[in-house]
Give the backbone structure.
Amino acid sequence: MEKKKRSSFSSRIGFVLAAAGSAVGLGNIWRFPYLAAKYGGGIFLLVYLILAVTFGFALMITEIAIGRRTGLSCIGAYKALDKRFSGLGWLASLVPVIITPYYCVIGGWVIKYFADYLSGSGSLLAESAYFDRFIGFAGEGLFATPLPWFLLYVLLTAVVVLLGVEKGIEKVSKFMMPVLVILSIIVAVFSLTMEGALEGLKFYIVPDFSNFSGKTVLAAMGQMFYSMSLAMGIMITYGSYMPKESNLERSVGQIEIFDTAIAFIAGLMIVPAVVAFNGGDPSGINAGPGLMFGTLPQVFERMWMGHLIGGVFFLLVLFAALTSSISLMETVVSIVCDKLHWKRRPATVAVTLFVLLLGLPSCLGYGPLASVQILGMAFLDFFDFISNSVLMPIVAFFTCLLVGWVVGTKTVSDEVEKNFPFHRKRLFEIMVRWVAPILVVCILVGQLLDVTG
Ligand code: PFF
Protein backbone atom coordinates (compact mmCIF):
# COMPACT_ATOMS: atom_id res chain seq x y z
CA MET A 1 0.00 0.00 0.00
CA GLU A 2 1.23 3.47 -0.79
CA LYS A 3 2.41 5.19 2.40
CA LYS A 4 1.33 8.80 2.75
CA LYS A 5 3.84 11.19 4.27
CA ARG A 6 2.75 11.92 7.81
CA SER A 7 2.14 15.51 8.89
CA SER A 8 4.75 16.92 11.17
CA PHE A 9 5.47 19.89 13.39
CA SER A 10 7.91 22.21 11.67
CA SER A 11 10.25 22.59 14.62
CA ARG A 12 11.04 21.22 18.04
CA ILE A 13 9.75 24.34 19.70
CA GLY A 14 6.51 24.05 17.73
CA PHE A 15 6.13 20.52 19.06
CA VAL A 16 6.93 21.55 22.64
CA LEU A 17 4.41 24.39 22.59
CA ALA A 18 1.69 22.21 21.08
CA ALA A 19 2.28 19.39 23.58
CA ALA A 20 2.48 21.89 26.44
CA GLY A 21 -0.73 23.40 25.05
CA SER A 22 -2.35 20.01 25.34
CA ALA A 23 -1.08 19.54 28.86
CA VAL A 24 -1.97 23.01 30.13
CA GLY A 25 -5.73 23.06 30.31
CA LEU A 26 -8.71 23.31 32.57
CA GLY A 27 -7.00 20.74 34.77
CA ASN A 28 -4.23 23.19 35.63
CA ILE A 29 -6.53 26.08 36.30
CA TRP A 30 -9.40 24.76 38.29
CA ARG A 31 -8.30 21.35 39.43
CA PHE A 32 -4.75 21.94 40.59
CA PRO A 33 -5.35 24.99 42.84
CA TYR A 34 -8.22 23.27 44.56
CA LEU A 35 -6.27 20.07 45.21
CA ALA A 36 -3.23 21.98 46.42
CA ALA A 37 -5.40 23.90 48.85
CA LYS A 38 -7.18 20.79 50.04
CA TYR A 39 -4.11 18.62 50.53
CA GLY A 40 -1.88 20.81 52.58
CA GLY A 41 -0.61 23.56 50.26
CA GLY A 42 3.18 23.39 50.06
CA ILE A 43 3.36 19.68 50.82
CA PHE A 44 1.08 18.92 47.88
CA LEU A 45 3.25 21.10 45.65
CA LEU A 46 6.34 19.22 46.75
CA VAL A 47 4.83 15.77 46.20
CA TYR A 48 3.47 16.85 42.83
CA LEU A 49 6.84 18.15 41.74
CA ILE A 50 8.65 14.95 42.70
CA LEU A 51 6.06 12.85 40.89
CA ALA A 52 6.20 15.04 37.79
CA VAL A 53 9.95 14.63 37.32
CA THR A 54 9.91 10.88 37.98
CA PHE A 55 6.61 9.14 37.28
CA GLY A 56 5.23 11.75 34.88
CA PHE A 57 8.54 11.99 33.08
CA ALA A 58 8.72 8.23 32.51
CA LEU A 59 5.18 7.95 31.18
CA MET A 60 5.41 10.98 28.96
CA ILE A 61 8.70 9.95 27.42
CA THR A 62 7.26 6.47 26.83
CA GLU A 63 4.23 7.77 24.98
CA ILE A 64 6.05 10.32 22.85
CA ALA A 65 8.73 7.81 21.93
CA ILE A 66 6.14 5.16 20.98
CA GLY A 67 4.44 7.74 18.75
CA ARG A 68 7.61 8.90 17.08
CA ARG A 69 8.97 5.41 16.61
CA THR A 70 5.86 3.97 15.01
CA GLY A 71 4.66 7.13 13.28
CA LEU A 72 1.11 6.09 14.09
CA SER A 73 -1.81 7.20 16.23
CA CYS A 74 -2.48 5.12 19.30
CA ILE A 75 -4.45 2.16 17.92
CA GLY A 76 -1.86 1.42 15.24
CA ALA A 77 1.04 2.28 17.53
CA TYR A 78 0.20 -0.28 20.24
CA LYS A 79 -0.49 -2.88 17.60
CA ALA A 80 2.83 -2.18 15.87
CA LEU A 81 4.65 -2.83 19.15
CA ASP A 82 2.82 -6.06 19.92
CA LYS A 83 -0.26 -7.45 18.18
CA ARG A 84 -1.65 -8.77 21.46
CA PHE A 85 -1.83 -5.22 22.74
CA SER A 86 -3.96 -3.77 19.96
CA GLY A 87 -6.95 -3.87 22.32
CA LEU A 88 -5.04 -1.45 24.53
CA GLY A 89 -4.85 0.97 21.63
CA TRP A 90 -8.61 0.84 21.31
CA LEU A 91 -9.04 1.39 25.03
CA ALA A 92 -6.65 4.36 25.01
CA SER A 93 -8.45 5.91 22.08
CA LEU A 94 -11.72 5.61 23.92
CA VAL A 95 -10.46 8.16 26.46
CA PRO A 96 -10.31 11.21 24.15
CA VAL A 97 -13.51 10.01 22.49
CA ILE A 98 -15.24 10.31 25.87
CA ILE A 99 -13.45 13.44 27.09
CA THR A 100 -13.58 15.67 24.00
CA PRO A 101 -17.37 16.23 24.03
CA TYR A 102 -17.69 17.17 27.70
CA TYR A 103 -14.48 19.19 27.64
CA CYS A 104 -16.03 21.26 24.85
CA VAL A 105 -19.14 21.81 26.98
CA ILE A 106 -16.98 23.38 29.69
CA GLY A 107 -15.10 25.30 27.01
CA GLY A 108 -18.45 26.73 25.93
CA TRP A 109 -19.10 27.99 29.47
CA VAL A 110 -15.70 29.70 29.38
CA ILE A 111 -16.52 31.56 26.14
CA LYS A 112 -19.82 32.70 27.62
CA TYR A 113 -18.11 34.11 30.71
CA PHE A 114 -15.47 35.81 28.61
CA ALA A 115 -18.17 37.30 26.36
CA ASP A 116 -20.04 38.62 29.40
CA TYR A 117 -16.96 40.36 30.75
CA LEU A 118 -16.26 41.74 27.30
CA SER A 119 -19.77 43.10 26.91
CA GLY A 120 -19.69 44.72 30.33
CA SER A 121 -22.20 42.43 31.97
CA GLY A 122 -19.57 40.93 34.26
CA SER A 123 -21.43 42.00 37.41
CA LEU A 124 -24.22 39.60 36.53
CA LEU A 125 -21.78 36.71 36.75
CA ALA A 126 -20.96 37.62 40.31
CA GLU A 127 -24.52 37.02 41.40
CA SER A 128 -24.47 33.90 43.44
CA ALA A 129 -26.27 31.07 41.67
CA TYR A 130 -25.77 32.73 38.28
CA PHE A 131 -23.81 29.72 37.17
CA ASP A 132 -26.48 27.28 38.29
CA ARG A 133 -29.10 29.23 36.42
CA PHE A 134 -26.95 29.36 33.32
CA ILE A 135 -26.07 25.70 33.10
CA GLY A 136 -29.57 24.83 34.28
CA PHE A 137 -31.02 26.55 31.18
CA ALA A 138 -33.08 28.90 33.31
CA GLY A 139 -31.95 32.06 31.52
CA GLU A 140 -33.95 34.03 29.00
CA GLY A 141 -33.23 33.39 25.33
CA LEU A 142 -31.02 30.84 23.67
CA PHE A 143 -27.79 32.75 24.40
CA ALA A 144 -28.45 32.58 28.11
CA THR A 145 -28.14 28.80 27.85
CA PRO A 146 -24.96 26.78 27.30
CA LEU A 147 -26.06 25.28 23.99
CA PRO A 148 -24.92 27.92 21.45
CA TRP A 149 -21.66 28.43 23.36
CA PHE A 150 -20.93 24.73 23.23
CA LEU A 151 -21.54 24.78 19.49
CA LEU A 152 -19.26 27.78 19.03
CA TYR A 153 -16.51 26.19 21.08
CA VAL A 154 -16.65 22.92 19.11
CA LEU A 155 -16.47 24.84 15.85
CA LEU A 156 -13.45 26.85 17.01
CA THR A 157 -11.66 23.65 17.95
CA ALA A 158 -12.64 21.94 14.71
CA VAL A 159 -11.39 24.80 12.51
CA VAL A 160 -7.89 24.52 13.99
CA VAL A 161 -7.86 20.74 13.62
CA LEU A 162 -9.07 21.12 10.05
CA LEU A 163 -6.15 23.41 9.25
CA GLY A 164 -3.78 20.61 10.18
CA VAL A 165 -0.74 19.98 12.32
CA GLU A 166 1.58 22.71 11.12
CA LYS A 167 -0.81 25.38 9.86
CA GLY A 168 -3.41 24.89 12.56
CA ILE A 169 -2.19 23.33 15.79
CA GLU A 170 1.38 24.58 15.72
CA LYS A 171 0.47 28.13 14.69
CA VAL A 172 -2.26 28.47 17.29
CA SER A 173 -0.07 27.02 20.05
CA LYS A 174 2.83 29.30 19.19
CA PHE A 175 0.56 32.28 19.63
CA MET A 176 -1.65 31.18 22.51
CA MET A 177 0.90 29.64 24.85
CA PRO A 178 3.18 32.66 25.32
CA VAL A 179 0.13 34.93 25.66
CA LEU A 180 -1.28 32.54 28.24
CA VAL A 181 1.88 32.79 30.34
CA ILE A 182 1.87 36.59 30.28
CA LEU A 183 -1.83 36.85 31.12
CA SER A 184 -1.47 34.34 33.96
CA ILE A 185 1.30 36.37 35.54
CA ILE A 186 -0.74 39.57 35.26
CA VAL A 187 -3.79 38.00 36.91
CA ALA A 188 -1.65 36.40 39.64
CA VAL A 189 -0.04 39.75 40.48
CA PHE A 190 -3.45 41.40 40.71
CA SER A 191 -4.83 38.61 42.86
CA LEU A 192 -1.95 38.85 45.26
CA THR A 193 -2.58 42.56 45.78
CA MET A 194 -6.00 41.84 47.27
CA GLU A 195 -6.30 42.67 50.92
CA GLY A 196 -5.73 39.56 52.99
CA ALA A 197 -4.20 37.63 50.09
CA LEU A 198 -0.87 37.12 51.80
CA GLU A 199 -2.44 34.85 54.36
CA GLY A 200 -3.79 32.71 51.54
CA LEU A 201 -0.41 32.77 49.86
CA LYS A 202 1.19 31.42 53.01
CA PHE A 203 -1.39 28.71 53.16
CA TYR A 204 -0.78 27.83 49.51
CA ILE A 205 2.98 27.55 49.56
CA VAL A 206 4.08 26.76 53.10
CA PRO A 207 3.92 22.99 53.66
CA ASP A 208 1.59 21.85 56.38
CA PHE A 209 2.99 18.42 57.23
CA SER A 210 0.07 17.55 59.42
CA ASN A 211 -1.99 17.43 56.22
CA PHE A 212 0.25 14.84 54.62
CA SER A 213 -1.26 11.41 54.03
CA GLY A 214 -1.49 8.68 51.43
CA LYS A 215 -4.34 10.68 49.98
CA THR A 216 -2.00 13.57 49.24
CA VAL A 217 0.12 11.28 47.09
CA LEU A 218 -2.90 9.71 45.40
CA ALA A 219 -4.44 13.06 44.63
CA ALA A 220 -1.16 14.40 43.29
CA MET A 221 -0.73 11.34 41.08
CA GLY A 222 -4.23 11.47 39.70
CA GLN A 223 -3.82 15.15 38.95
CA MET A 224 -0.51 14.56 37.23
CA PHE A 225 -2.10 12.16 34.77
CA TYR A 226 -4.87 14.50 33.98
CA SER A 227 -2.63 17.49 33.74
CA MET A 228 0.00 15.95 31.52
CA SER A 229 -2.56 14.47 29.11
CA LEU A 230 -1.21 10.97 29.73
CA ALA A 231 -2.79 7.58 29.01
CA MET A 232 -5.18 8.83 26.37
CA GLY A 233 -3.23 8.55 23.15
CA ILE A 234 -2.59 12.28 22.87
CA MET A 235 1.13 12.18 23.48
CA ILE A 236 1.47 9.17 21.17
CA THR A 237 -0.29 11.10 18.42
CA TYR A 238 1.75 14.26 18.96
CA GLY A 239 4.90 12.13 19.19
CA SER A 240 4.09 10.72 15.76
CA TYR A 241 4.28 14.27 14.39
CA MET A 242 7.56 15.06 16.14
CA PRO A 243 10.55 15.69 13.89
CA LYS A 244 12.94 12.73 14.05
CA GLU A 245 15.99 14.88 14.63
CA SER A 246 14.57 16.64 17.74
CA ASN A 247 15.81 16.01 21.25
CA LEU A 248 13.03 14.00 22.85
CA GLU A 249 14.19 14.02 26.45
CA ARG A 250 14.78 17.74 26.48
CA SER A 251 11.35 18.36 24.97
CA VAL A 252 9.66 16.29 27.65
CA GLY A 253 11.51 18.25 30.34
CA GLN A 254 10.27 21.50 28.88
CA ILE A 255 6.69 20.32 28.57
CA GLU A 256 6.76 19.28 32.23
CA ILE A 257 8.16 22.61 33.35
CA PHE A 258 5.54 24.49 31.33
CA ASP A 259 2.69 22.43 32.68
CA THR A 260 3.78 22.57 36.29
CA ALA A 261 4.62 26.27 36.17
CA ILE A 262 1.19 27.18 34.83
CA ALA A 263 -0.50 25.00 37.45
CA PHE A 264 1.53 26.73 40.14
CA ILE A 265 0.71 30.21 38.80
CA ALA A 266 -2.96 29.22 38.56
CA GLY A 267 -2.79 28.47 42.26
CA LEU A 268 -1.33 31.92 42.84
CA MET A 269 -4.18 33.46 40.85
CA ILE A 270 -6.88 31.62 42.72
CA VAL A 271 -6.01 30.38 46.19
CA PRO A 272 -4.86 33.58 47.95
CA ALA A 273 -7.70 35.63 46.46
CA VAL A 274 -10.38 33.11 47.35
CA VAL A 275 -9.01 32.67 50.87
CA ALA A 276 -9.01 36.46 51.28
CA PHE A 277 -12.53 36.65 49.90
CA ASN A 278 -13.68 34.08 52.44
CA GLY A 279 -12.18 36.05 55.29
CA GLY A 280 -9.15 33.79 55.65
CA ASP A 281 -11.05 30.53 55.50
CA PRO A 282 -9.40 28.10 53.05
CA SER A 283 -12.20 25.56 53.20
CA GLY A 284 -14.24 27.69 50.77
CA ILE A 285 -12.09 26.51 47.89
CA ASN A 286 -14.34 23.91 46.41
CA ALA A 287 -13.62 21.75 43.40
CA GLY A 288 -14.70 22.07 39.86
CA PRO A 289 -17.17 24.35 38.21
CA GLY A 290 -18.30 26.05 41.40
CA LEU A 291 -14.89 27.56 42.02
CA MET A 292 -14.20 28.95 38.59
CA PHE A 293 -17.69 29.84 37.49
CA GLY A 294 -19.26 30.69 40.83
CA THR A 295 -16.75 31.94 43.38
CA LEU A 296 -14.17 33.60 41.14
CA PRO A 297 -16.51 36.12 39.49
CA GLN A 298 -17.48 37.21 43.01
CA VAL A 299 -13.82 37.58 43.90
CA PHE A 300 -13.17 39.66 40.78
CA GLU A 301 -16.08 41.89 41.73
CA ARG A 302 -14.19 42.87 44.88
CA MET A 303 -10.85 43.30 43.15
CA TRP A 304 -9.42 46.54 41.88
CA MET A 305 -10.09 46.63 38.09
CA GLY A 306 -11.86 43.36 38.69
CA HIS A 307 -13.94 43.39 35.51
CA LEU A 308 -10.88 43.77 33.37
CA ILE A 309 -9.03 41.08 35.32
CA GLY A 310 -12.08 38.81 35.11
CA GLY A 311 -12.11 39.22 31.33
CA VAL A 312 -8.38 38.56 31.08
CA PHE A 313 -8.75 35.54 33.31
CA PHE A 314 -11.45 33.93 31.19
CA LEU A 315 -9.49 34.70 28.04
CA LEU A 316 -6.49 32.86 29.38
CA VAL A 317 -8.65 29.96 30.49
CA LEU A 318 -10.11 29.90 27.00
CA PHE A 319 -6.64 29.66 25.45
CA ALA A 320 -5.66 26.92 27.88
CA ALA A 321 -8.83 24.97 27.17
CA LEU A 322 -8.65 25.40 23.40
CA THR A 323 -5.11 24.10 23.00
CA SER A 324 -6.19 21.05 25.05
CA SER A 325 -9.43 20.35 23.23
CA ILE A 326 -7.57 20.72 19.94
CA SER A 327 -5.20 17.95 21.05
CA LEU A 328 -8.10 15.80 22.20
CA MET A 329 -9.95 16.22 18.91
CA GLU A 330 -6.78 15.80 16.86
CA THR A 331 -6.15 12.48 18.56
CA VAL A 332 -9.57 11.20 17.51
CA VAL A 333 -9.23 12.63 13.99
CA SER A 334 -5.83 11.05 13.54
CA ILE A 335 -7.24 7.68 14.55
CA VAL A 336 -10.01 8.00 11.98
CA CYS A 337 -7.48 9.02 9.31
CA ASP A 338 -5.13 6.14 10.15
CA LYS A 339 -7.75 3.45 10.58
CA LEU A 340 -10.22 4.32 7.86
CA HIS A 341 -7.71 5.96 5.51
CA TRP A 342 -9.88 9.05 5.39
CA LYS A 343 -8.53 12.47 4.51
CA ARG A 344 -8.28 15.08 7.25
CA ARG A 345 -11.32 17.08 6.10
CA PRO A 346 -14.00 14.35 6.10
CA ALA A 347 -12.49 12.89 9.26
CA THR A 348 -12.70 16.24 11.04
CA VAL A 349 -16.27 16.82 9.89
CA ALA A 350 -17.31 13.38 11.09
CA VAL A 351 -15.58 13.78 14.45
CA THR A 352 -17.10 17.24 14.91
CA LEU A 353 -20.59 15.88 14.36
CA PHE A 354 -19.89 13.08 16.78
CA VAL A 355 -18.59 15.51 19.42
CA LEU A 356 -21.70 17.64 19.05
CA LEU A 357 -23.92 14.62 19.44
CA LEU A 358 -22.14 13.07 22.40
CA GLY A 359 -21.65 16.46 24.05
CA LEU A 360 -25.36 17.14 24.01
CA PRO A 361 -26.23 15.03 27.08
CA SER A 362 -23.39 16.67 29.04
CA CYS A 363 -24.55 20.09 27.91
CA LEU A 364 -28.15 19.44 28.91
CA GLY A 365 -27.23 17.34 31.93
CA TYR A 366 -27.64 20.01 34.60
CA GLY A 367 -30.76 21.44 33.01
CA PRO A 368 -33.41 19.64 30.97
CA LEU A 369 -31.79 16.25 31.57
CA ALA A 370 -31.00 16.80 35.25
CA SER A 371 -33.29 13.98 36.27
CA VAL A 372 -31.18 11.45 34.35
CA GLN A 373 -28.32 10.25 36.52
CA ILE A 374 -25.76 7.50 35.95
CA LEU A 375 -24.34 6.00 39.16
CA GLY A 376 -25.71 9.07 40.88
CA MET A 377 -23.83 11.44 38.58
CA ALA A 378 -24.85 13.93 35.90
CA PHE A 379 -23.66 13.00 32.39
CA LEU A 380 -20.63 15.30 32.47
CA ASP A 381 -19.45 14.02 35.83
CA PHE A 382 -20.01 10.46 34.77
CA PHE A 383 -17.94 10.83 31.58
CA ASP A 384 -15.24 12.53 33.63
CA PHE A 385 -15.26 9.70 36.14
CA ILE A 386 -15.12 6.86 33.60
CA SER A 387 -12.32 8.43 31.60
CA ASN A 388 -10.14 9.82 34.36
CA SER A 389 -10.70 7.49 37.24
CA VAL A 390 -11.17 4.20 35.46
CA LEU A 391 -9.84 4.10 31.90
CA MET A 392 -6.71 6.21 32.25
CA PRO A 393 -5.12 4.21 35.09
CA ILE A 394 -5.92 0.96 33.25
CA VAL A 395 -4.32 2.23 30.04
CA ALA A 396 -1.28 3.49 31.95
CA PHE A 397 -0.87 0.17 33.74
CA PHE A 398 -0.89 -1.91 30.57
CA THR A 399 1.36 0.57 28.79
CA CYS A 400 3.95 0.09 31.54
CA LEU A 401 3.50 -3.65 31.28
CA LEU A 402 3.99 -3.56 27.53
CA VAL A 403 7.06 -1.36 27.58
CA GLY A 404 8.61 -2.55 30.83
CA TRP A 405 8.08 -6.28 30.45
CA VAL A 406 6.91 -7.31 26.98
CA VAL A 407 8.74 -5.34 24.29
CA GLY A 408 11.36 -4.00 26.68
CA THR A 409 12.42 -0.51 27.69
CA LYS A 410 14.94 -0.51 24.84
CA THR A 411 12.07 0.16 22.45
CA VAL A 412 11.72 3.56 24.06
CA SER A 413 15.32 4.29 24.97
CA ASP A 414 16.58 3.52 21.46
CA GLU A 415 14.17 6.09 20.10
CA VAL A 416 15.20 8.68 22.70
CA GLU A 417 18.89 7.99 22.09
CA LYS A 418 18.70 8.31 18.31
CA ASN A 419 20.64 11.56 18.18
CA PHE A 420 21.13 12.53 21.80
CA PRO A 421 22.23 10.91 25.07
CA PHE A 422 19.41 9.77 27.38
CA HIS A 423 20.37 11.26 30.73
CA ARG A 424 17.57 9.92 32.88
CA LYS A 425 17.55 6.44 31.30
CA ARG A 426 18.01 4.48 34.54
CA LEU A 427 15.29 6.47 36.22
CA PHE A 428 13.00 5.86 33.27
CA GLU A 429 13.63 2.11 33.36
CA ILE A 430 13.01 1.76 37.08
CA MET A 431 9.89 3.88 36.90
CA VAL A 432 8.33 2.04 33.96
CA ARG A 433 9.14 -1.43 35.16
CA TRP A 434 8.53 -1.15 38.87
CA VAL A 435 7.31 2.06 40.38
CA ALA A 436 4.78 3.33 37.85
CA PRO A 437 2.71 0.12 37.57
CA ILE A 438 2.40 -0.11 41.35
CA LEU A 439 1.50 3.54 41.74
CA VAL A 440 -1.05 3.30 38.95
CA VAL A 441 -2.82 0.39 40.62
CA CYS A 442 -2.91 2.47 43.83
CA ILE A 443 -4.52 5.36 41.95
CA LEU A 444 -7.16 3.10 40.44
CA VAL A 445 -8.03 1.45 43.74
CA GLY A 446 -7.98 4.79 45.57
CA GLN A 447 -10.31 6.41 43.07
CA LEU A 448 -12.73 3.51 42.99
CA LEU A 449 -12.82 3.45 46.80
CA ASP A 450 -13.38 7.17 46.80
CA VAL A 451 -16.43 6.93 44.61
CA THR A 452 -17.92 3.87 46.25
CA GLY A 453 -17.10 5.01 49.76
N1 PFF B 1 -4.23 18.13 30.22
C1 PFF B 1 -5.35 18.94 29.88
C2 PFF B 1 -5.93 19.55 31.14
O1 PFF B 1 -5.28 19.48 32.17
O2 PFF B 1 -6.99 20.13 31.10
C3 PFF B 1 -6.29 18.22 28.98
C4 PFF B 1 -7.08 17.12 29.58
C5 PFF B 1 -6.55 15.98 30.04
C6 PFF B 1 -8.38 17.25 29.72
C7 PFF B 1 -7.32 14.99 30.61
C8 PFF B 1 -9.17 16.31 30.26
C9 PFF B 1 -8.63 15.19 30.72
F1 PFF B 1 -9.36 14.25 31.27
